[in-house]
Write a structure and sequence with these properties.
The complex is a heterodimer of chains A (474) and B (464). By secondary structure, chain A is mainly beta. Among the domains of chain A are: 100 residues, Potassium Channel Kv1.1, Chain A (2-Layer Sandwich); 108 residues, YVTN repeat-like/Quinoprotein amine dehydrogenase (Methylamine Dehydrogenase, Chain H, 7 Propeller), CATH 2.130.10. Chain A is built from 6 helices and 32 strands. Chain A has a 4-stranded antiparallel β-sheet with strand order 4-31-30-29, with no helix packed on it. In chain A, strands 5-6-7-8 form a 4-stranded antiparallel β-sheet, with no helix packed on it. Chain A has a 4-stranded antiparallel β-sheet with strand order 9-10-11-12, with no helix packed on it. In chain A, strand 15 and strand 16 form a beta hairpin. Chain A starts with a helix and ends with a strand. Chain B is built from 5 helices and 32 strands. The N terminus of chain B is likely disordered. Chain B is mainly β and 464 residues long. Classes of the chains: A mainly beta (474), B mainly beta (464). Chains A and B meet through helix 1, strand 2, helix 4, strand 28 and strand 32 of A and helix 2, strand 4, helix 4, strand 5 and strand 8 of B. Chain B: One of its GO terms (cellular component) is endomembrane system. Chain B: Pathway: Protein modification; protein ubiquitination. Chain B: It is a peripheral membrane protein. Chain B: It is found in: Endomembrane system.
């Protein structure tokens, strides 16, 4: 953020390093290093290579006011306040013209997402059939929303960039396969389908078939995840037999099948959530069912290369006896921090398991030290958990909370071996936010947190900000 | 001198020994004097420009920055104030540019200087919202008007311009005492957490934890933090609540210097069991004011003591049995200690100029009020700032000021006259109960019960 003032000082002595520009009739003068900071592919870089002996300024037939904003951006790496006069679209278009859109993107990107200091910045609402059935966020802050059989794409600026209609009536799972290609699945229709945004067309499908078993047909997709080379999707048939298919990303063909099981019990139903962990090459699948006698389910880790189960736990049945009957209602994987997090259905407690050291009972139950925040029986409210940037976000009914790691003192090494006091719980939202509806899904991407709620159109976007957001009451 | 869009030709070339400096900023030429540039201070961008001009007088230095903001900052250099046209710019842009030129200090001086504090002209002007559901438990300000707000386990810091903020997570469940050591360093403590933590709020790390080694070897909770020009004071109580002490630390090194007011509690001596819950340094008298109170079945009682920290002796003390203070503040410039009574809710003072054994509080509020066991002043805050005393009462702030009578003949009883006013316009009155009050720069900050925000009151003349 802090720029080197010396670099600007050294430039002053060499007059030849300077360049004059005439943008739409207004004169600008700057240094070559400033104008070249957009990178060698930019228009400005190309202009700067003109003969410097030419006394006439370089003429660019564009709006001078937007140019002055972008020149400030190049000089300071900050967007000046005068940029508020222009719409996001205008700025993005103009930055693209000059070839400095990556500069604009880094200057407008939100700061690292911190759950303890986040506020809602807006909501992305598709124009029609706005109830999102599934969505997926990307690292650059863009998001794909599946709604009513169509998928809409919104870029990092929340600008709508495209929509395609699928042949499915409802899309229940969506996954980003390539920057332009989405894999979608539905619980009401068979198969895993690949759609391309650029042509808004269907590019391929995968079905689960078994030539030796005629019962395996019309298998529906429950969950999708992607690794660098493959897509994993969990399929289940009408008679509940299920498996996970590994699909090659480039050829869209089934590579292998793993974890096939009968589905006649809670501990072998189809995984409702799949996560691929690139650091260890392990696929994590989990299933949860809730019934009259409480929740039950399993977490299973596969090595996709061998198809073997690496570790598994099922609840009820495993874990501390004191936690009996308190099986998990939701789980998520911290892919970067290599940890599993589960939310207990009865107590509402959050527990963590280190993926590098999975044992019989690896769970560390995170304690709430603040007496005013201790939960007292919030049974019945739906719970979701999601990890992003080393923080764990939990939706309980409509409330959104974050568990963040407390910075330990450097001298205090002996603590922290256990999870006690490692995490601290805080609310992200205000009480009135929680009244908008039960949270259905939380996902982070590009230093933003996207939240969808039951029966609420569109998805909420939460960001951290360094701006104080002071409200004048004069 | 108005800047002009030049094509590089200066009409009147300055002579080599001239004082006039010409600078080309982003294509516009500016002329100023070396004296103006030196007001920025040594080793800044401008001093380097002025040096480079001295060595090569005919060379016009080129600065690749925005010329419009530069013209504002040049005015700031010339006059010490920003021109009024700066109002059309975003302050954040001006701060960014002033940092580039190394003159942010001048900008702070012109916009948020404690000398510009106008107690009679404070408006409720800004609300600083806090994220999450915790309402503020403690606030701390710095000299130039930045503010740290503890809410729940978090501390949010607003910079001096109140335009930027950052939030860090602490190990506390709630911070009860907070003191700003610098705009990025704060000391924090809690009644239920052992040790005083020195927090680096920029990086969110604990720099140091200061503990008081008590006899019982239990933890030491922090009851109050105060600071003088060279010292940091902390009132500790052992976790078993059977001993308490005030430790004096060196402000720079944070090494303990001395310990005063050490109490060990044996038996039923309630008086010594009360730790100091407010520490205030009295600069003009080189004394530390420490006070604490305890609410029991027979009402509230407490003490107020003045300590000489060099000798460790108590200079003066007063025990509070009837209408004990709810809060105390010492005013250096008025040479008086002010309290707000917990039962009456009225303000009283003791003159510091003639302290003696039998000194008593002089009530300057409504004396006729019957003290009937009601705690009308419970939770009231009192804070002396400059020549005024600010006292909160429920959702309102009272401003007390001394009336100096010119004709001494009228003043035979030598009683000082203090009069109060309610602050704010009618629409600002009332509201939820105020639970924190602090002053920094030219501003007053307050927080209210169950409100996740900080209210800022400031004078309007130089506001951007």
């Amino acid at each position: 953020m802090e720029e080197e003032s010396t670099s600007h000082m050294t430039a002053e002595s060499h007059t030849t390093d300077r360049i004059k520009l005439n943008v739409g009739g207004k004169l600008f003068e700057t240094t070559l290093s400033t104008i070249r900071s957009g990178g060698p592919d930019s228009l400005l870089f190309a202009l700067s290579n003109r003969n410097s002996n030419d006394p006439n300024p370089v003429f660019i037939d564009r709006d001078p006011e937007i140019f002055s904003v972008l020149l400030s951006l190049l000089r300071t790496n900050h967007l000046p306040s005068t940029s508020h006069r222009f719409s996001k679209q205008e700025l993005a278009d103009e930055a693209l013209y000059y070839g400095i859109d990556s500069h604009l993107r880094s200057a407008t990107a939100p700061p690292p997402f911190s759950g303890i200091d986040a506020s809602i910045v807006g909501s992305i609402r598709p124009a029609a059939e706005g109830l999102p059935s599934a969505f997926t966020a990307a690292d650059n802050g863009s998001v794909w929303i599946a709604h009513g059989g169509q998928v809409s794409s919104y870029d990092w600026n929340f600008l709508h960039t495209g929509t395609f209609r699928t042949h499915l009536d409802d899309i229940d799972s969506i996954c980003r396969v390539w920057p332009e290609i989405a894999a979608v699945g539905s619980l009401s229709d068979a198969g895993l389908h690949f759609y391309d945004f650029s042509g808004s067309r269907h590019v391929g499908s995968v079905q689960w078939n078994d030539p030796t078993d005629p019962r395996i047909f019309k298998a529906r997709v429950n969950a999708i995840t992607a690794s660098d080379s493959s897509v994993f999707a969990s399929f289940d048939c009408l008679h509940r037999e299920n498996c996970i298919l590994q699909v090659d990303k480039t050829r869209i063909q089934v590579v292998s099948q793993l974890g096939r099981q009968s589905g006649n019990q809670a501990k072998n139903i189809v995984p409702g959530k799949l996560t691929f962990v690139p650091a260890t090459g392990v696929l994590v699948g989990s299933a949860v069912t809730g019934g009259a006698f409480g929740y039950s389910g399993y977490i299973r880790l596969w090595d996709p290369r061998s198809g073997e189960v690496v570790w598994e736990t099922s609840e009820p049945g495993a874990g501390r006896s004191s936690r009996f009957g308190d099986s998990f209602a939701a789980i998520d994987v911290d892919v970067e921090g290599l940890a599993l997090f589960k939310l207990c259905s009865k107590s509402g407690d959050l527990a963590m398991a280190d993926m590098r050291n999975l044992r019989d009972d690896p769970w560390i139950y995170l304690k709430e030290k603040n007496p005013s925040l201790v939960m007292n029986g919030e049974e019945g409210s739906s719970m979701v958990v999601s990890c992003y940037k080393g923080q764990v976000f939990v939706g309980r009914g409509g409330g959104l909370e974050v568990w963040s790691r407390v910075q330990e003192e450097a001298t205090n090494v002996e603590r922290g071996s256990e999870g006690d006091g490692l995490f601290r719980r805080n609310f992200v939202d205000k009480r009135e936010d929680s009244e908008r509806g039960a949270i259905r899904k939380i996902e982070g991407g590009g230093d933003r947190l996207f939240v969808s709620r039951e029966d609420v159109e569109g998805i909420e976007v939460w960001e951290s900000s360094h701006s104080a957001g002071a409200i004048s009451v004069l | 001198m108005p800047p002009f869009v030049g094509d590089g030709i200066v009409q009147s070339q300055p002579k080599s020994d001239s004082n006039i400096v010409t600078i080309d900023v982003g294509g516009q030429l500016f002329q100023t004097t070396k004296q103006t540039l030196t007001t920025a201070g040594t080793k800044t961008f401008f001093s380097r420009i002025s040096e480079s001009v001295s060595t090569s007088p005919f060379h016009i230095p080129f600065v690749d920055r925005d010329p419009e903001i530069f013209s504002l900052l040049l005015s700031l250099l010339r006059t010490g104030n920003l021109p009024s046209k700066a109002k059309s710019f975003d302050l954040q842009d001006l701060i960014q540019e002033s940092r580039f030129y190394g003159i942010e200090k001048l900008l702070i001086d012109s916009l948020s200087n404690p000398s510009q504090f106008e107690p009679f002209n404070l408006h409720r002007s800004l609300i600083l919202p806090l994220n999450g559901r915790d309402s503020p438990s403690a606030i701390a300000t710095t000299r130039y008007g930045s503010v740290h707000v503890a809410h729940g386990s978090k501390i949010t810091s607003f910079d001096w311009s109140l335009r930027r903020k950052s939030t860090v997570l602490t190990q506390f469940t709630a911070v009860d005492s907070l003191l700003a050591i610098s705009p990025s360093i704060a000391a924090a403590g809690a009644n239920d957490f052992s040790g005083l933590q020195i927090l680096d709020l920029e990086n969110g790390i604990v720099k140091e934890t200061l503990n008081w080694e008590n006899v019982t070897r239990s933890g030491s909770t922090v009851q109050a933090i105060g600071s003088g020009p060279n010292h940091l004071f902390t009132s500790f109580e052992s976790s078993r609540r059977n001993s308490n002490s005030i430790v004096v630390y060196d402000f720079e090194t944070l090494k303990p210097v001395s310990e005063i007011s050490h109490n060990e509690i044996f038996g039923a001596d309630i008086g010594s069991a009360i730790p100091a819950t407010k520490l205030e340094w009295v600069n003009g008298y080189n004394l530390l004011m420490a006070c604490g109170s305890h609410s029991g079945p027979f009402g509230v009682n407490g003490y107020l003591r003045l300590w000489d920290i060099r000798s460790g002796n108590m200079v003066w003390d007063i025990n509070e049995k009837i209408d004990c203070f709810a809060d105390v503040s010492v005013s250096d410039s008025l040479s008086a200690i002010f309290k707000v009574g917990v039962n009456s809710g009225e303000v009283s003072y003791v003159d510091l100029r003639n302290l003696s054994e039998g000194n008593e509080w002089v009530c300057i509020g409504d004396k006729r009020k019957v003290v009937n066991g009601k705690k009308e002043g419970k939770g009231c805050k009192i804070e002396a700032q400059g020549n005024q005393v600010f006292c909160t009462k429920g959702g309102d702030v009272e401003l007390w000021s001394e009336v100096i009578m010119g004709n001494s003949g009228l003043m035979e009883d030598k009683k000082r006259i203090f009069k109060k006013n309610l602050m704010g316009r009618v629409k600002d009155m009332g509201g939820d109960k105020i639970n924190n009050l602090a002053f920094g720069g030219s501003r007053m900050f307050l927080t209210r019960k169950d409100q996740q925000c900080v209210e800022v009151w400031q004078g309007s003349s130089r506001e951007l």
